[in-house]
Design brief:
Chain lengths: ~130, ~130
């Protein structure tokens, strides 16, 4: 496993454990966190921690696929969320960039939702 | 760039070029294509090609980030779609697995849509 992939794995594990000191230790102080779907941006490690600590509901994250090269990494993970509206779950992806010290300098998350696909030719597609 | 990342790049480029012969050359005959959000599964290179050739609307794909290790790769790409309903665009991700011959044996796509985020503490989040 590359160093970037290992850091990405620890990012998910420390987040799931709410081990905030260990989680912050992976991040550059000026880390930028972006969510393109909601056009949200959080600047800095402290704000990013507060964003996660105060996120509404009880959430859990489990890594499924981790890929890293010299400069970047991605984690495809399963999530569950329990809140006043009930239980929900799905898959999401976090992309990571790193600074020269090997700390995470940028995180970009994607949270895809279920959708109904367009009609296609008969027999082409299975549904599960 | 790793071999897997290079294949992932060529996958996107040949798809964008509708160079179906070159695109098929990257795929194992028994490739499986899955879209977890719509719970769609397509089995085999021929069906997968027909799925793409007959996809409704005029679509374009531009790679943004490509990451590969020895066994897997991911492409984060920008897409545009023009159809009877107008123009739409966004970012999506395709994850790849490879067989022992270096051909793509599995593709899993995610197509995240915009959403409105939950309210958060004042000053924590910028919107763009």
């Amino acid at each position: 496993m590359t160093a970037t992939a290992e850091i990405a794995r620890r990012f998910l594990e420390t987040l799931e454990a709410r081990d905030w000191a260990a989680w912050e230790g992976l991040l550059a102080e000026a880390v930028v966190y972006e969510l393109p779907q909601s056009r949200e941006r959080i600047r800095g490690r402290s704000a990013y921690r507060r964003f996660n600590e105060t996120y509404p509901g009880e959430w859990h994250l489990t890594p499924k696929v981790i890929i890293g090269d010299e400069h970047r990494a991605v984690v495809w993970f399963a999530w569950t969320l329990s809140d006043g509206g009930g239980e929900d779950d799905g898959d999401a992806q976090a992309f990571f960039e790193f600074d020269d010290a090997g700390l995470i300098s940028k995180v970009t998350d994607f949270w895809p939702e279920p959708y109904e696909p367009p009609a296609r030719p008969d027999g082409l597609v299975e549904r599960w």
